[in-house]
Automatic annotation (TrEMBL):
High-level lineage: Eukaryota, Metazoa, Chordata, Craniata, Vertebrata
InterPro entries: GPCR_Rhodpsn, GPCR_Rhodpsn_7TM, Olfactory_Receptors
Localization terms from the record: Membrane
PANTHER family: OLFACTORY RECEPTOR
Protein name per its UniProtKB record: G-protein coupled receptors family 1 profile domain-containing protein
GO molecular function: G protein-coupled receptor activity
Species of the source: Myodes glareolus (Bank vole)
Record's GO cellular component terms: membrane
Length: 110
């Protein structure tokens, strides 16, 4: 989890990468850290506690968080795939097509 946060911070703080598609990688690292923290928190608590029970509300919250972060990760993968498609098949129009507004539209539509 710490490595994913470090990757996200490094990518977001680098001025050389400003405006490049590596922001998608930073977001994926952040999502991986979120998924890991959702799953690992209960697992660590179970290792430290003798009673390995979970309440229904806690279980549903954990399942919702896992599915939510996984769905957002799939949407980011779709945006990355579209970004690569545009970069390969329309390289001269890439900068005019893949602006931040269009990336946000594709992300919301995905």
């Amino acid at each position: 989890m710490g490595v994913n946060i470090m990757i996200a911070v490094t990518i977001l703080c680098s001025p050389a990468l400003l405006g490049s598609p590596t922001y998608f990688l930073a977001f994926l690292s952040f999502l991986d850290a979120c998924i890991t923290s959702v799953i690992a928190s209960k697992m660590i608590a179970d290792f430290l506690d003798d009673s390995k029970t979970i309440f229904f509300v806690g279980c549903m919250t954990q399942i919702f968080a896992e599915h939510f972060f996984a769905a957002v990760e799939v949407i980011v993968f779709i945006v990355i795939a579209y970004d690569h498609y545009v970069a390969i098949y329309k390289p001269l129009h890439y900068s005019s097509i893949m602006n931040w507004r269009h990336c946000g539209t594709v992300g919301v539509a995905g």
